Each structure stands twice: as C-alpha cells, then as structure tokens.
Write the structure tokens for this entry.
Amino acid sequence: MFTGPRQVEVRDQVVPAPGAEDIVVKALYSGISAGTEMNVYRGVAPQWHYERDPETGLFRTAGTPQWSYPLAYGYASVGRIIEIGPAVPRNGNLAVGDLVYTYTAHAAQTVVRWTDAVPLAPLSDPRAGVFLANLNTALNGVLDARPGFGDVVVVSGLGVIGLLLTQLLRRTGVALLVGADVIESRRNLAKELGADMVLNPLEESVAERVRSITDNRGADVVVEVSGSTTGLNEAIRTVGYGAKVVVLSWYGEDLSAVNLAGEFHHNRPRLISSQVGGINFELGPLWPIERRKALATKLLAEVELEPLITHEFPLEEAAKAYAMIDEKSDDVVQCLLSYTP
C-alpha cells in the first residue's frame, strides 16, 4: 500500500470471496515499474491531484482527485490459479495450476474475473511473465513508429521498455539502431540485445552524432522513453525534417523546460503519443488492442528477458525495493517482488 508520497507499507487484508465468474490467483512474482509506478510512488502522477473527466478525457482541478491514500498499486503480477468459480467456462483455457498474468496490485493472493486474467504458456522461468505489460507498451511504440526498411532509429532511454524496444526494432529491418542512455551497464546491455551503436548523452550530443553518420539527415524515428525533459528535447533535435518522435514516457517532472522554439519550430517533427491504452488508428480495424496483446503474449517466449531482471526482493521488503529504485541505482533495470511458495 502507498500510504503517502514515497511511503510503502505491507498490510494484511482479508481476500474477498470469489464470485461465480472469478478465479483466485496465488502470486509468484510481480514487477515494479520504474516509470509509471514510480511516478505514483513519488506522488507526482496527475491522478493524485486531478480528476479525469470520463466524458471529455480532460484532467481538471475541480472535484475530488482520482486517487487517495492509502492505495494498493501495481499491474504486473504472475501467479497460478488455485480456485475457479462455478460459472467460469470449462473450455480448457483456464484450469487450477495454470500460470496467468493479472493487471493487479502487488499482493500474495488476488481475486479477478476470469476474463481479466491472461493465460501464459509454460515458461522455463515464470519471472518472464511479469514483462507482459512492458511488452505491450514496447510493441505499441513499434506500431506507432512504423519504421521503414533501411531507417535510422534511435531509442532514447534504455530501461526495461527501451531494451525491449531495442529487441523488437531489430526485427523490423531498420538499417541503423542507436541506443542512448547515461548508464553504462544499460548501454552495454543494449549492444548485446541488438543495438548497432550506443551513445552517452552526457559525453556527446546525440543529435550531432546522428547527423554526422546520416549525411546530416537526422534520424527517421526517435522513440523517447527516457522520461526526462532533457531526453525529449534531444529527441526533437535528433530527428530529421518532418520525422517522428514517438513518446512512450510518462513525465512526472515539470515540463516547462521543453524547447519548442528551435528545431521543433523549424524542422517540423511529428510528436506522437504512444500511450498503451490505445493503438495507432492508421493501422485500421485489422489491429484491435486484442491482436497486440496476443502478439505481446507470444513474444514473452521469444525475446531476451532474463538479462533485464537485476533485483528481487521478498514482498516483506517492498519498501526497501521502492527506495532503491527511487535512488536511481545505476545497476537497476527490472526489480521484482517475490512471494512465499
């Protein structure tokens, strides 16, 4: 439970009785998101301060904020079914003992409607299952970027999403894939996972280096997942005339320093929001969200995930895990919480 900004407690609660269409899942692992979830942990997510109007889609200061403390949060839990309600279809898709993914808060046991659980194929390491939401997000970024054969693509920010993007973009036929991050271990990992070149933005201008290797054209696409104003500004500078900046980051910081005067004004880049709740409308009716989810689930067994898991804590030490991620330890990529067998 988040009990205040940067405050975490592990509490005992009674598990609600399952309904006829529910399943009960005993957790094995859950993943802490270093992007979205840390904005919630730090108390800077807009839902702490604003209410989102479901009709207009606008955040407004009037009314009651969408969230209040204490709040149970999380959305990357993997576990096994231990009970199935009598009205759950017995069509072979779900059975006691099956491994499933649920978009539920960090908890040792949870009750969900059967349609809200994602069946997972047997995994040699069930920890890989926690990356399903991350893969959906990364895949959504690729579908929004739609890189062409021979394109130059830059991934700005090499955390979990950036490293997954590196692997997915490598499959698309891009000519040059560049990763940028200030942390050396993440740059090294990106190279191992398919990046042709990695750059340290603290040591050189990404925009100028990319110009130097593209006859001054700039990148065809920059996928921005650094979560920082500096990264967004450099992404705008890095793309070529009329090219795309695909933004997956959920910025928790003040964006008053975003520069829309120079390259943005003169080079006409296209800024594209790639929030995972929607899908690129240009893909048309053949790409509903369900198709993307199915592909992401299949990719769990195809991409390299084990190297991304750098830390694991038992649930009882959740506060320690969050504090470590918050301090931006250079060796953290994906941190897991584990549950008593």
Summary: Residues 2-120+305-338 form a domain with the Quinone Oxidoreductase; Chain A, domain 1 fold (CATH 3.90.180.10). The chain has a mean pLDDT of 94. The chain has two domains: 2-120+305-338, 134-283. The first helix runs from residue 36 to 42.
